[in-house]
Amino acid sequence: MIKLTVTGASGKMGQRVITNAVASGEFELVGAIERENHPQLGVDIGTIIGLGKELGVPLTSDYGKAIIKGDITIEFTNPEITLFHLKESSAQGKAMVIGTTGLNDEQLKELKSLAVNIPCVFSPNMSLGVNLLFKLAAEAAQILGDDYDIEIIETHHRMKKDAPSGTAVKLADVVAEAVGRDMKKVGCYGRQGITGERDRKTIGVMTLRGGDIVGDHTVMYLGTGEKIELSHRATSRDTFAMGALRAAKFVVAKPKGLYDMQDVLGLKDK
Prior knowledge:
This protein is an alpha/beta fold.
């Protein structure tokens, strides 16, 4: 069995990762990590997340100590904590799956430099369906070309901290690359007032927040007399948890290097 550590263990994603890992029978949970001032440190994680049984794994803030007996960590936290954990995993040679979003350019650069020292999967979205959407969106953009305007709309729950979502950013990057554009030059992240005629090279990314929406993403290709839409709607965080576990099984025995979900799903050569 794969010995697993989960960060943000008592959070929404951490709970779903642990629940699905235990149910699969393919993982042994050996570490459950939370922030230093978490009120339930020392309490068994099985009790905390309501599994109805103890797992023999107390909640801890000592990441370095927790991963010593593990094979791999699944990480859904924030950029600063993720980089701190990645440095420790890199030092100990422990594999990681990272689903954290909201990293800026400097943080991404640091992540990529550290991740090559261990087997690591990094993706802004662990959903199998979303990663298929990345491929389909790029192919559609390439086929339709400059005759179609491209707009991306993403919607998430009111508690999401970063905007636009990491998935929307990735979608924009893959469609921009497919049509030979640079999002730093053509990206439009909001419109207000008299904006003038739309530049045909623009790729719009619009953000909506509200309610408890797990995650909706739509890429629109707007032509003369027709509109084509590619959409993905997540209805449960389990889709991300199961994707992360699949990534863990894929990467734990791989050579050192940075992988993504396209590698996990074998989509790069198709």
